[in-house]
User: Fold phosphoenolpyruvate--protein phosphotransferase from Pseudomonas batumici.
Amino acid sequence: MHNKNNITLSAPLSGPVFPLADVDDAVFASGTMGPGLAIDPLNDCLHAPCAGEIIHIARTRHALTLRTDNGAELLLHLGLDTVELQGEGFALLIEEGARVHDGQALLRVDLDRVARHCKSLVSLVVLTNGEHYHLQPVARTQVKVGEPLLRIVPRLPDEQHAAASTTDTDEVRGSARVAHHGGLHARPAALLRQTAQGFSCTARLHLDDRSAPLDSLIGIMGLSVGEQQEVQISCRGPDREAALQALLDVLRTPLSDTGHAAPPPAKAIPPRPSEDGVLQGVCAAPGLVCGPLAHLSGITLAPDTGHHIADEQLQALDGALEKVRSDIHAMLLRARQRKDSEEEAIFNAHLALLEDPVLLDAASQAIKAGQAATHAWDRSIEAQCQVLLNLGNPLLAERANDLRDLRQQVLRALLGEAANYKLPPGAIVAAHELTPSDLLQLSQQQVAGLCMAAGGATSHVAILARSKGLPCLVALGAGLLDIVPGQVVVLDADHGRLELSPDEARREGVALAHWQQQLRRQHQDAQARLPANTRDGLHIEVAANVASAADAREAHLHGADGVGLLRTEFLFVERRSAPNEEEQRSAYQAVLDAMGDRPVIIRTIDVGGDKQLDYLPLPVEANPVLGLRGIRLGQARPDLLDQQLRALLQLNPLQRCRILLPMVSEVDELLQVRRRLDELAGELGIRLRPELGVMIEVPSAALLAEQLAEHADFLSIGTNDLSQYTLAMDRDHAGLAARVDALHPALLRLMAQTCAGAAVHRRWVGVCGALASDPLATPVLIGLGVTELSVSTPQIGEIKARVRSLDAAECRRIVPSLLQLGSAAKVREACRQHWPLG
Ligand code: PEP
Ligand code: MG
Assistant:
């Protein structure tokens, strides 16, 4: 769009020339519309000052905008306040969108009429996208049409940033105080960039006299905006007002702090006198382990031989970037499936960094200058790391580690297998600083713990270590790297200690503690396979949420009483074509087979809205989560639903299969599917009917529970969506995450109504949303009348243990008082008092 050629503009009118500042119009004179000059016309026809495209003509014909071939946009405005003539006196000679040549006649004007009815005939030539160009006047005081008037010179990239504060009619601005803890580090920066991408206007972030485009994560982070600092956003383009609001909201809404189980921050650890043989660090993930130390160093590149064919190197880099992008994308999807919003945010930030124009441009420039793709990428990353490190902001300095992560990943993709590493199981891995992708690889190699010379407790790698349950210490200092590999050490992350020469007794003590922990786990595992009955004998089914047969096998192994929710949409996404009936049948059968003799609840496809399928084009939705999703998609595309129902009807044994319908909001939706199920079963010659249940995840369904229960075999409460639709808070909104709490008394009331409605028809009620996995909520759900909890597999043992510790009658007695409370926080507090967690 903006090329680097200079363009000389010829005079569009004949007459005296003078500066904009002398024009009798405050807006033009102040330069608000952009730089330019004025001509007092002596002729009656406006000519094109150069070749280009007419991109806009005012409805009242008194002004038009020409885009030049180097991308500059020129407003040609005839007379002052001529808008009031409503087009009278102006005759257009071209149309909007026309391609015009230099000197072409564009607009004829009735000079007498304009002179009589308007303030002035003075006409203007204004550059409206001045952040990309300079205007150099070609000195003259009087011009004739076609004589040289001005030169347009594209600005250098740095100048463009500085010039971005130039305003014009197309720009809106607003300020906000940054509410994000630690300022605009990678995740809020990525959120800002992602939000800007949802609009077609261009947007910039301004801090004092510096600014950065919102399409560059590095640019945003490079401004080093701190918490509570006042910044400005400017937007130019068609949807600028909406974009501005959305971006200001992002700045003002703090991201929920990452890591629910985050350890106390580094500062909370009391300083300790240094001890011989102990390195002091900061706890990034708790735990106590003992094992041989193994060093992990980053990839070291051999010196560049030069002599490369630039095209080949560019292609190699593109391929590597593509591979890394798709790897990260796959990790992102897995994180999304697990509903792990912290990992999701990290991978989103990494994807954004991989697209960052600053990084990519620097690397391709270096390749064009003769470097190998590996070295070009390495240097481009290192240069940006230095930028972040030099900002003097510890949080942003930690983000340099994310860049180094991408360095490693792309180098690994460029260098192939040679760059991977292997470590003995049980090792305690030491490194200057690990990256998130290192961590994911390491956690698959059964290492015991991690320690880093550098790093911080708020880094992404720390968040991941916590979520993987890997004890991790950071900021141990350079001494860490001098420890002899193989030396047995004790990593006491809880107390911030790396003990370099633990004696026999200490090693045995740690090993004993480790063994006891394993015993506890084993015991819990054994208990997990037993039924979960409350102290007063009420049986609660503790099932698992799964997305595949592999998940189901794991759930079965860990004592799941069944599958409480198979999200079948995961079978449909990430494919080029829809799975056919047989593929579906065998995928569902595999889940049934994995569960022994336990029941399996299979939910019909819940795509649509924001989960799009490549092979199933659906209309773009203004409000996707309120649109065509869940069972509504089945109504719009009955062929899809029929195919899935046919696959389900052919499962064996059908008695163990229960069908669940998502997003039901009225009884007819259920009746329709029931009828269709009957028809299809008839066609297939099947006499048995699987049980059919509905999800209660929309407030209308909860309010209609009694009517639904009349026709449904069971109800399953989806607390994730029920929270979103009841509280009017996007369940994926990072800034609202802490408030989307299904223990909100309004939700408890809806759940109470659901259970009461189901009881009228003697139907059972389960919960398959995330609330079921929260042990604090177990007594509440039991007290409300829920008898099935579908949880994530690692939680099965814990939830069963919690059930066994409760008295159902007591739960029923206390729960009504919780419905009277005013907030989720109050409910949580009351739960902690009545039913303390062990
Ligand atoms: C829910 O909404 O609670 C639910 C279980 O469904 P999903 O999370 O798949 O939308
Ligand atoms: Mg749902």
Notes: The first helix runs from residue 26 to 29.
